[in-house]
Amino acid sequence: MFRDTKAFSGFSVDNLEKAKEFYGNALKLEMTEASEMAILQLHISGGHDIIVYEKPNHEPATFTILNFPVQDVAKAVRELKALGIVFESYDMPDFKTDADNVFRGGGPEIAWFKDPAGNILSVIKEDE
After folding, report:
1. What is the pLDDT of residues 82-94, one digit of tens each?
2. Model pTM above 0.85
3. Class of domain 9-125
4. Nearest to 40 by CA among 83, 11, 6
5. What separation in angstroms does the CA of 49 have from each of 16, 67, 75, 101, 126?
């Protein structure tokens, strides 16, 4: 039924201006703004936009809402930290990030950070 549809995803933020600054200036994503509605469209590779909308009673997602595949996770983390982005640190049995905030065991290398609304994002090792 939906196999050939051009599905897209979306998520909420508590402040669209902060989201524009973060996604456009810090992460360097192309975007457009729907002025008639409080919506940003993030334009990502592959041709499917992601909708970001302001929601007054926004609650941050407790899971990763957006993954950015990269060739070199450690390099991406260093570059984002240089922009002031803070990475999450985890220290649980069988799930630990290292001193660079990168998870390096039991799957692809991955590091998590949050947008200004508290939603969880990641940089993840791209499949080769």
Report:
1. 999 999 999 988 8
2. yes
3. alpha beta
4. 11
5. 16, 14, 26, 29, 20
